Amino acid sequence: KQEVTQIPAALSVPEGENLVLNCSFTDSAIYNLQWFRQDPGKGLTSLLLIQSSQREQTSGRLNASLDKSSGRSTLYIAASQPGDSATYLCAVRRSNYQLIWGAGTKLIIKP
Amino acid sequence: DAGVTQSPTHLIKTRGQQVTLRCSPKSGHDTVSWYQQALGQGPQFIFQYYEEEERQRGNFPDRFSGHQFPNYSSELNVNALLLGDSALYLCASSLVTNHRGTQYFGPGTRLTVL
What we know:
The complex is a heterodimer of chains A (111) and B (114). Chain A is globular, with a radius of gyration of 13 Å. Chain A has 111 residues and is mainly beta. The relative contact order of chain A is 0.34. Chain A is 0% helix and 58% strand. In chain A, the strands form two sheets. In chain A, strands 2, 4, 5, 9, 10 and 11 form a six-stranded mixed β-sheet that branches. In chain A, strands 1-3-8-7-6 form a five-stranded antiparallel β-sheet, with no helix packed on it. In chain B, strands 2, 4, 5, 6, 9, 10 and 11 form a seven-stranded mixed β-sheet that branches. A four-stranded antiparallel β-sheet of chain B has the order 1-3-8-7, with no helix packed on it. In chain B, a hairpin with a 5-residue loop joins strand 7 and strand 8 (74-78). Chain B starts with a strand and ends with a strand. In chain B, 38% of the residues are buried.
């Protein structure tokens, strides 16, 4: 059974710092892995999607890496800003299209 | 181009009642998935609809049922509501021919069961 874990559950850092969010999964047989952002009371916004054959994806100040063999992914945020404050969730997609989610990391960027 | 829309935004029900939530997919999308997100947790997959049929189902009881209409919109029905059904219900749409499986999410419906 696939399980997805995100550590830490919450993180508070000063503005301008670079930071890393972690995601681990128990079954390496994944189709892809996605990182999402969720703002309070709102839905989910896809940030980055990494196919199982890829090692990393980049979008602006965000970089996501994937190591299938160790069951780990990281989301790197460079030069954090207060607007980055949100909950970040990772989800792995199995071949049957179902997404399995972590519980998220609540990120607070202090001005 | 309208994104995924859901209605209502908020809903309050009492135990034992029935509820229907609605979702309109992003224009051009043909597949709709429903998720339940309890407070402080990640979403849990309920089921997915394609071509008006339930294609996959997560670990949810039969009290949870759905429907997809010819215009690809979808409904989620929950019967005999329990306090534990209180959650944010998210709808996501995708295109079956998109092998990356990219899903676009609506803002969700916040259901409170008293």
